[in-house]
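Lab notebook, bench 4. Still working through the backlog of constructs that have no structural model yet. Next entry is a single chain of 430 residues. Request: give me the structure tokens for it.
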Amino acid sequence: MHLGLFILGTGSHVAGWRYPGAVDSFQDFSAIQRIGQTAERGRFDLIFMGDNLYADAEAHPSYTLRLEPLTMLAALATTTRHIGLGATVSTTYSDPFSVARVFASLDHISNGRAAWNAVTTANAATAANFGTTHPDHARRYEMADEFLTVVKGLWDGWSDDAIVADRASGLYIDPAKLRAIDHTGTFFKVKGPLNIGRSPQGHPIVLQAGGSEAGQELAARTADIVFSVVQDIEEAKAGYASLKNRLPAFGRAREDVTVLPGVMPIVGRTDKQAFEKLATLQSFVSGSNALAILSDRFGQDISAYDLDGPIPDIALPDSYHSFARVMLAKARRENMTLRDLYNLTAAARGHWVLCGSAENIADTLQQWFESYAADGFNVMPPYFHEGFEDFIDLVVPILQERGLFRADYEGMTLRDHLGLLRPKNTRFEP
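Model written out:
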């Protein structure tokens, strides 16, 4: 199986920073360096950093106060050797030339470990920081589709042998080995080529997290890794099959895309110890913070509803489709109250919480992996450093002993870790 680390400096739990001894800042680069080195010690495939483009004091601390992802990962590349480095950049509030260039740069700096999480940006509050209006869901995905086409075209604008650097002749770049993209589309007009050579991976890895119909189609066409939101194994198996079954239509094999559901593991040496940790974390949650996160996820003010009443009839929002769909399905399946639902949201923002002994957590991950519900997991520690190191020191060795996870890295690039070939440059190779 493959393992990614979803890194939030204050932990994925909304109150993880309050746990005794926990890291309480996502601006402390020394703490981030330690986290990166721990993930590499655990032989993880990649570190992934999400992002947003606005500040809300009531939101998760690490979403409001953080380092810019590409800057942080470029610095982290210098203190790690093997682990992949993934960052979110919006296709709605960025431009293709800049995105292609920065990820090619990160791929060179890291010797082939860069990954781009291409998101359409769900939250409408972002638009105010760019002097524009927020496009609706359908239009955002139309923009993203064209954006990705342009970025991949730009990554192929240089042949691998374009840089000659012949001292005798004085020829540095073979002009025949550079090609403009000359793209004119509905949303973007880009000439190209980039002013950086083809990157070590050919194309940096592309990540996606969309769970809607449009999101799954875009992922099936363009993504190498897909992050998913899950709460139930049968639902996860259905989503996994749905995505994998779309791949042949785009000339792709099932192994070309790695599906990593998000999971918050709360690990103890015994089940009792793990649940005590969870109880401590939950004791720090304020109702107002949990409700603010839940209202954000559902795209409407939830405070008007009775917390101890049944789940109201809430329409899926134009923003977080997959989060809302999964949480509502679980709540109705398990006859939850709204209070139950916001406690779940506070714990992991709608992601799956897996609490128990290391052995039981390993058993569950193995079951999901072997049942074709996942190709691995995007691990979301509730807090750092202990909350992550427990997983590395207690769960990973069990997975390794069972032959489910690598004992060591077998290559240097993120493509090597994922078992993906370096893509041909279709603009220069037959």
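Notes after review: The chain has one domain: 2-268+351-418. The chain is about 40% helix and 15% strand. Flag for follow-up if needed.
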